[in-house]
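Supplementary Note 2. Why include the ligand at all?

Several targets in our set were suspected to adopt different conformations when bound, so apo predictions alone were not considered sufficient. For every target with a known small-molecule partner we therefore ran a joint prediction. The input for zinc ion is given below.
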Amino acid sequence: MKRLVARLRLHHLIKLSIKQQKGIKMNNQEFYDRLGVSKDASQDEIKKAYRKLSKKYHPDINKEAGAEEKYKEVQEAYETLGDEKKRASYDQFGPAGANGGFGGGAGGFGGFDGAGFGGFEDIFSSFFGGGGGMRNPNAPRQGDDLQYRVNLSFEEAIFGVEKEVSYNREASCSTCSGTGAKPGTSPVTCGRCHGQGVINVDTQTPLGMMRRQVTCDVCHGTGKEIKEPCTTCHGTGHEKKTHKVSVKIPAGVETGQQIRLQGQGEAGFNGGPYGDLFVIINVLPSNKFERNGSTIYYTMNINFVQAALGDTVEIPTVHGDVEMTIPAGTQTGKTFRLKGKGAPKLRGGGQGDQHVTVNIVTPTKLNEAQKEALKAFAEASGDKAVNPKRKGFFDKVKDAFEGE
Ligand SMILES: [Zn+2]
Ligand SMILES: [Zn+2]
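The joint prediction is reproduced in token form.
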């Protein structure tokens, strides 16, 4: 039974895929075991263990089979236990997880590099697939995470910007406050399954009476019965709503980076928290510049007279035009550095540089006066016009006529 949700919403809103963790028993001990620490370990001990194991299993260091998997497991465990808030939630909802349904908060493996949806494994989804009566239909469950792709201009990515994003999401029903019951009434424990969400069915077979568990047909597995459903949400407790949120995008972001906004995803179930919104950055190209990290690249076309004699030129940068001196005798392909004229460094602070590569353009249409001037230049230069180690053009012509 696979539950994969990855549908497009609006133009660029995607519901994160949810992978069922078949056969993986998650409990609130697992992450501690991965780091080899006790449940009452201090943040210091957790950090120390994490560092040690990260080094040990790092794919660049450890080439043993399974090391990378171990490395990922350690990262995942630390992402939860290294954050006191997430750790508390993991500790709290773990016991529910032992019954098949995890509560909210322990999910959300943020900070990935935008390679895709991998890593967003909803550990709570085992709730749906767990074996028969092992599940707890009343456990709070976090709502789904959402993704929103936002396009930024080249300059917005460099200087940062605040963007308002608007999208449709499943929100908690405003009429019934998410209970699904008509205001003034409240859901009651399902009379058929007594809140278990499943019922036993006895079937006569040639081998004798067989007993199996099926989802309760009255409450559909929720364990609760709504006698008078809310007319707005028809008992689901959720209501589709347009949601607006303002996103502060820091200066220096790049394509593929993500900003996580807690609680801006979809409404939870059984009182579980909202999921998160992941804003994925897409930086549009510039027609002038290229960028890699904090370094900005620009190509400046100059003519060979400027290259030979030197010149002062105006160079555009994202911080405004600046003057740059091209020394006499500059060769094509030479790169100059304009310090601090790049993009801000996201980590460590400071500002990158702009690299200016000089491209010498050879004229293609010369008038007579220009041709004369160049011939005069060639004559004045003699053999040394281009390269002293090579024969001049006129010498080559002479050689060709004189033969060997
Ligand atoms: Zn029931
Ligand atoms: Zn409602």
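Confidence is low (pLDDT under 50) at residues 1-12, 14-26, 95-134. The two ends are 85 Å apart (CA to CA). Comparable summaries for the other entries are listed in the accompanying table.
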